[in-house]
Design a protein that fits this description.
Oligomer: single chain
Radius of gyration: 32 Å
Number of strands: 11
Strand order of the largest sheet: 1-2-3-4-6-5
CATH class of the largest domain: Mainly Alpha
Shape: elongated
Strand content: 15-25%
CATH architecture of the largest domain: Orthogonal Bundle
Largest sheet: 6 strands, antiparallel
Length: 350
């Protein structure tokens, strides 16, 4: 790798850096398009067996053809530098969006439904993400969510645990196995090094959804160890206590995702997606109902104004007609005209 290129790709700028490597915006001169290059630390694929697993996992991730999953284009190594070439998305990482402000429940539900749909597709293909977090979700200007790094977390071996690593991906040894992921978003079984299935991603998804609507992490601590202790032993504060806009249904979904016992969570991402879609539709309906109500009030106002104008014009015409009659007729009708006007006024819609 030179200062500007890797393989035939031209590196343009660094987009981000984390425990799983460094991501660059790059250009593919052969196809004339922008792509993203993820450089993985050489230690991830330092032996032939691990390199083979890396290729296998990357191939599995590249087979996920879904509009909410970033496509993998190529897997290569430049000398001892393994890298993945993948789709470049011009958007904002979700962690940066949350850093500015908590999202409105409707916006969080919209992003959540797309993310859940992506995870459901991955789970049906036998792929568990293992490191779902806001930094691994990118949202475009059009509101489309894109999930990245499928399968990459499985490639991590044990790494030295840093006390400040609560947002980066870390690995550590337990008595049962290797822990891989990001401390604040790990499931309890993941923190204990136990075998994982899709329900682990459901827990991580709940932690992400909680942070979207509250602007705070569900689990936090002064360091990685205390954060993992919170994941294992503490219950987060109810989301509605932090953000009163959160509905009871949405709060129940989040709470069910964050059950310590996997058997008490949603068992399949499809079920979670359907539940969240219903919350989104209710939120959309509630927002849309404001416009018809306003329109109805406007129509009533216009109708009332028209009726009033007609009555005034009619009364004026009667008065003019009455005054224009001969005096003898006018005298005889003196008692009738006011009566006619009063009668018309009494029977009007107003």
């Amino acid at each position: 790798m030179s200062a500007r290129t890797i393989s035939h790709y031209e590196l343009l700028e660094k987009l981000g850096e984390g425990g799983m490597g460094t991501v660059y915006k790059a250009r593919d001169p052969r196809l004339g398009r922008f792509i993203a290059i993820k450089l993985l630390p050489p230690a991830f694929v330092s032996d032939p067996g691990r390199r083979a697993r890396f290729v296998q996992e990357a191939k599995a991730a590249s087979a996920l053809n879904h509009p909410n999953i970033i496509c993998v284009y190529d897997i290569q190594a430049e000398g001892d530098e393994p890298f993945i070439a993948m789709e470049y998305v011009d958007g904002t990482p979700l962690d940066r969006m949350i850093r500015k402000r908590a999202l409105a429940p409707a916006e969080a539900a919209k992003i959540g439904v797309q993310t859940a749909d992506a995870l459901a597709a991955a789970h049906s293909a036998g792929i568990v993400h293992r490191d779902l977090k806001p930094a691994n979700i990118v949202v475009t200007a059009q509101g489309r969510a894109k999930v990245l790094d499928f399968g990459v977390a499985k490639l991590l071996s044990h790494e030295k645990l840093g006390e400040e690593e609560t947002t980066k991906s870390v690995g550590l040894r337990t008595e049962e196995g290797t822990v891989v992921g990001t401390a604040a978003y790990m499931s309890p079984e993941q923190a204990q090094g136990k075998p994982l299935d899709g329900r682990s991603d459901i827990f991580s998804f709940g932690a992400v959804l909680y942070e979207m609507v509250t602007g705070r992490r569900a689990f936090s601590g002064d360091n990685t160890v205390s954060t993992l202790a919170a994941v294992l032993n503490h219950e987060p504060r109810p989301a509605s206590e932090i953000s009163p806009e959160v509905s009871r249904d949405l709060e129940r979904i989040i709470a069910r995702c964050l059950r310590k016992d996997p058997a008490r969570r949603f068992q399949h991402m499809d079920d979670l997606r359907v539940a969240l879609q219903e919350v989104k539709e209710e939120s959309d309906s509630a927002g849309a109902s404001v416009v018809p109500a306003t329109a109805r009030r406007s129509r009533r106002f216009v109708q009332t104004a028209i009726v009033t104008a007609v009555l005034v014009a009619t009364a004026a015409a009667l008065w003019y007609a009455f005054r224009a009659r001969p005096a003898s007729v006018r005298t005889a009708a003196d008692g009738m005209a006011p009566l006619a006007i009063r009668s018309m006024t009494a029977t009007s819609p107003l």
